[in-house]
Amino acid sequence: MKLTAKHTIYSCYMGYVTQAVVNNLPPLLFLTFHNQFGISLDRISLLITVNFFIQILVDFLSPGIIKKTGYRKAALCSFLVTIIGLTGFYYLPFVISPYLGILICMAFNAVGGGILEVIVSPMVEACPGQNKEARMSMLHSFYCWGHMGVVILSTVFFTTAGIGNWRVLPALWALVPAGTFFLFTRVPIYSIPGDDEETRPSVSIFRQKSFWIIFFIMICAGASEQAVSQWSSMFAEDGLKVSKTVGDLLGPCSFAFFMGLSRLLYGLKGEKLNIIRSLKATSLLCVAGYLLTSLSPIPLLSLAGCAVCGFSVGLMWPGSFSLGALMCRGGGTLMYGMFALAGDVGCSAGPGLVGIISQISGKMTVGIFTAMVFPVLLLILVSVLRSQKQP
After folding, report:
1. How many domains does the chain have?
2. Cα(304)–Cα(282) distance, integer angstroms
3. CATH number of the domain enclosing 151
């Protein structure tokens, strides 16, 4: 069977499912790490920071390396190191220092996730077809469906096999990158706009004001998303005193579902939306979600706040990528790599701030309330961007 652009897009969807596994499986185990190995909240926060710091470094280095190796080899490498990282959870924390073992596994996952973040969006953008903004949002929605799958299937595993057998779970999830590895050995790879002399912009993206505004919007988008996403499971279990099953299903699972729903709706109706106005509206909704999550005295309302946050942040990441494609045309792999770098800076800063403030105050609700600064800054930056140029 001859494979086409459609198969390339589907393979990229699976690439983002792998990214969802990398980022969202460890947080489901944070309380287990805390209880079984005695790892403190600030050290768990450091795990998140190191994860995204490595992804930032990979984002920075990848464009130059990918230009030499090509997208296919980069993709295959990303899946291989992710398989190593996920399977490593089975044995490394038990043969060396538990914290060091977990850190090494997350480092391998971060390398694989960082490469995927740089290559998947431009690969989809390069595929022939219409309505690329909607296609981009559909792509990013698969991160959310992957996140949901991680939570639901992991919860089923914990319920049937017991939390004591948690080390088997990451090895089972390694089947996802293993399957996607074989897909990427066969699908066609298309030329990325901006990576050749004919499509390269005459003015460097680094000299464009709109690029730098979108760069900082991406930081705020990543922080707004992960500040709640990374801590929602532990917040539900430890802060709201609900069971792990209820906490995972109503915390990170509801967050992922509504984030995916937001991206799916944008994918279906994206061509009719003004991206800047939509980003301003979702920033305001995100602030409301943070307030509900952190200030509500009723646990179920706090969990509902997580869902509101999920829906509100859904547009931020793909919307920012679409703005970059519109306003910095021909930016190529370098532009997408820089935006991924910015997003990962935010993904590190958001949960890092929550963890530090929660440790200092002794209340995770205080940490989550503090992280509300990120959607507020995003709203300000989008307003500034509107005065620069209208897409």
Report:
1. 1
2. 16
3. 1.20.1250.20
